Amino acid sequence: MQIVPITFAYTTHGRDKVGGTGPQGLLKRGLLRKLEAQGHQVLAPIDVKLTGEEENQYGGWHLAARAGGRLADTVKDIRRQWPDAFILGLLADCNAVSGMLGGLQAPVEHVWPARVGLVFVDAHGDYNTPDTSPSGMLGGMPVAIAAGKALCDHRLRHGLRYPLQSPDIVMAGMRDLDEQEARAIAEDDITLVREEDMLEPKAAAARLMPQLVARQDAVYVHVDLDILDPQRAPAAGLPSDGGLSGQQLGAFLKELMTYPRVRSLAVVSYRAHDDHDGRTGAEIEEAILMALEGSV
Ligand SMILES: [Mn+2]
User: How far apart are the first and last CA of the chain?
Assistant: First the structure.
């Protein structure tokens, strides 16, 4: 398979902060060489970069919005240049969701936008709105933003011109949902499999995928690495008790990749600067390599 890697290091805290160190950390481990060894044709990674002036403008949300917009443009350009390539995102955090979806949705060959679906894999729902969020953290809202629920007229939706509808979204993991967030997911009728169900990848994917892919031109699989067990992967995301091993995550993702129109996979929230013994990186790498080994 032809793979185009994207690196994206922006969070609301700036470039190369928190999960922003993850993309380079994974490159340094030699991830791309290992994908080539599996038989993939891996192109040179494309780094999403703002100008110094854009980076220094005031405000974290503003930065996330600008960077996300640039990410959407990058994904669109990749689709124009390599229409059949698989896009592998090594991204800073979940705020990148709308940028990835926006780039996949943007019209390239036709005048109409592509229909895009999201498989959202995370310990958390990221489905809060400013009304329901206990913390007010932007990082808890990206799926709600992509769905047009939160801040939907705001620049934060980046290049995603048309919000996703409930049947365009499925969720997996979610061992740590806020009460109102859980209610919103149920009320909006979003299909969800819990973490324990992910240990049976075939059955879990069969619940999530057929209806999702039937509606879409392209499906994007977004993985917040806090889905991993913090005992094994302490430098991934916002730690909460429980979680999967890299191998368990990889087996689940590999099953998703067997469905048609899955065009892109991204991992986020790897704090490489905190991964002193490389344990977390090894778990992540195992998951990515397993996910893509069957798609050569
Ligand atoms: Mn997240």
Answer: 5
C-alpha 67 – ligand 1 centre gap (Å): 17
Strand partners, 173: 122, 194
Query: For residue range 276-293, what is the model confidence (pLDDT) as tens digits?
Result: 999 999 999 999 999 999
**119, 212 in Cβ contact below 8 A?**
yes
Which residue type is seen at 90?
Answer: L
β-bridge partners, 268: 91, 224
Identify the CATH number of the domain in which residue 285 sits.
Answer: 3.40.800.10
Question: From ligand 1's centre to the CA of 137, what distance in Å?
Answer: 11
pLDDT per residue over 104-133, tens digit each?
999 998 778 999 999 999 999 999 999 999
Q: How many domains does the chain have?
A: 1
What's the 222 CA to ligand 1 centre distance in angstroms?
Answer: 9
Average confidence (pLDDT) over 260-280: 97
Asked if 18 and 271 count as a contact pair (C-beta separation under 8 A), the reply is yes
